[in-house]
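Handout, page 2. Input:
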Amino acid sequence: MKTFFIVVLVLFILLISGIFVFLFTFDANKYKDLLVEKIEEAIDKDVKIGDVSLNFLPALSLHIDEISVKDSNKTWGDTILDAYSINAGVKLIPLIKKNIEVQHLSIKELIINIRGESSVSLKPVFRDIELKGAMTSGDIVIKRLTGLVAGGHFSAKGTLEDVFLRQHLDVDLALKDIKVSDLLPEAESGMPQFEAKLNINMQASIKGLDVQKSLDTLVATGTARIEEGVLKNVNLLNLALSKLSSILPGLVEELRAKLPPRYSELLKQNYSAFKPIETDFNIKDRKVFFQETKISSDAFYMIGSGYLSIERDLEVSCDLFIPGDLSKAFVDEVYELKYLQNNQGMITMPVDISGRIPDVSVRPDLDYAMKRLAVATGERLLKSIFRKEGPSDAGASDPDTGGSGETQGQEEETQRKPEPEEVLIRTIFDIISGSDK
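Output:
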């Protein structure tokens, strides 16, 4: 019995020694061709792998210095994806049999080159990626995927079905505190630049692991919240009013000169700051669509619908509203603006926003404004024709009351009912200007 235990102990020591010898003398680079073959089979792209090494502490893993992926018709200077410092936790027995089964994956840095129709590409940089999953019958179950991107972080879970053929991915994705400016090309000095923090929760479906194919087939629904939004180098309210200067020359200058300091400062700002924005959205055909989204600032708010494409093309149709107190201040200084007010006393006008970010134009509907302001001109003209002259002594003082004729006239004007011709005039111009007045 003693001899038996000695034999078992010796065999155990030999086994452990053999494993250590295997680990220390193992040339992981022999597996490069196998790794390249498996990755190329999965994504149908050219793959290049740097040095490969085997680590056994704290757990058995393959370490890869670098992986690059490109289209077959491109050079290695024009890659789709570049990943650095990759660690893949693997199982020992399959590895000895020259098979690789990954239990855990971590990537220090990942750069994805997203190319649209424009010459400028998006290159989001992902860091500290951690993936825990399992593979069953050709499917990969993503138990947990986390990482950092654009100053924030992301997390996801889902299933990748038929990884070597159909490649259908269903995933729940959350993005938190993403800096929008980090995902956009740097704007030239003085050009508009949007800064904000973005939070997203969405459910997405993707077919194919190729970057471009994934974007083409991406379908998703979700909610977004935008915080700390600032559009630098553009005052949207000032811009909208400046466009009206072609109809009312000197409008902005007159408002700046006459408005109380609180309001005139709003026109002097070289930026537009936004309150938190919340919206539902859906993604298809490489575009993010949103409906009836409210965008608010201290000086105005807009309600609009439109889309933003992966190529950064922006198309939004919206209505701009200036709050009642600010609208009243505008009307007190420039009477013609009264004809742009709605039933709630807010100056309002349709606005179109379009262009390729950062080269975006804001265009108020001047036809709408001209139609409304034509009412003011026409109304004054017809009133001058129909106006009835008052008594010749209307301006005389009333000795009995001690008041002036002007004060009495103002009281009578306030209390009197509109004359029939005034009602007729308003009806005519209501019809001309449309029922939306």
